[in-house]
Amino acid sequence: MIDPFVGTWSLDTSENFDEYLKEVGVNALKRGVATASSPDVVISKADDGFISMKAGNIMTPHKIKFKLNEEFDETTIDGRKARVSYCIINNGKLVQKQSWDGKTTTLVREIKEGKLRVECTMGDVTSVRVYKKK
């Protein structure tokens, strides 16, 4: 189920990411750093069922380890303390939900035409980031 997502992905295109981060509540300085960088995303799986996802840059590396369909606490790359879950839905999309302070954002990852497409939605704001496999 997770196999198509496994690998190292480099950012190819990014649309509306600053607006999405603003809607999430990320401050201007951190938004500037996030939108100016194009970090690789590394997704791997272990034999014990855990999935690891590593992103960020040299100054702000971020790595999480999780199992599908199990909620866990995460301190996000921008410092939010969130309750997070990942699941695979029937059409093969990897859906991530983050909840904090009564708010929720959803990130939907899918493989489309050999690329990793990430749709980030918070309220009425959506950002789409597309990654090429290295």
Would you give an account of this structure?
By secondary structure, this protein is mainly beta. Helix content is 13%, strand content 54%. The model has no long low-confidence stretch (mean pLDDT 94). It contains two helices and ten strands, in the order βααβββββββββ. Helix 1 runs antiparallel to helix 2. It is globular and about 40 Å long. The protein has a ten-stranded antiparallel beta sheet with strand order 4-3-2-1-10-9-8-7-6-5. A hairpin with a 5-residue loop joins strand 6 (81-88) and strand 7. It has a single domain (3-128), classed as Lipocalin (Beta Barrel), CATH 2.40.128.20.
Could you give the distance between the termini? 20 Å
Mean pLDDT: 94
Number of domains in the coordinates?
A: 1
**What's the CATH class, please?**
Mainly Beta
Q: Order of strands across the biggest sheet?
A: 4-3-2-1-10-9-8-7-6-5
Order of helices and strands: EHHEEEEEEEEE
In the CATH classification, which architecture applies?
Beta Barrel
Shape: globular
Secondary structure class reads mainly beta
The CATH homology group name: Calycin beta-barrel core domain
Helix content: 10-25%
The CATH topology:
Lipocalin
Oligomerization state: single chain
Main beta sheet: strand number and arrangement? 10 strands, antiparallel
